[in-house]
Amino acid sequence: MTKKTTRRPNLPSETLERARRELYGAAPQTAAPSTNAAIEHTPTPAVARPAGIKTKRETNLREEYAYVVSDLKNMGILAAVLMAVLVILSFFL
Known about the structure:
Elements: H1 13-24, H2 61-64, H3 66-92
């Protein structure tokens, strides 16, 4: 039996590295060191924005989803009719 080999994804290595950085949240790495070593890029902290004020409003769920109750009733009636048809057909077939 042959040894199983790990298949490599059919993507360029640059794309894979970028995806891994985004997935794990690592800082971007450059492939080659820059010629100007005196300039260092420090990541700027993200500015936390205050969350918007969420207003809570009272909703009557019976009024909001009245169509669901009527649909459930219709499906129940349809299921009962189909079951009755199956029982009646079982006597003849």
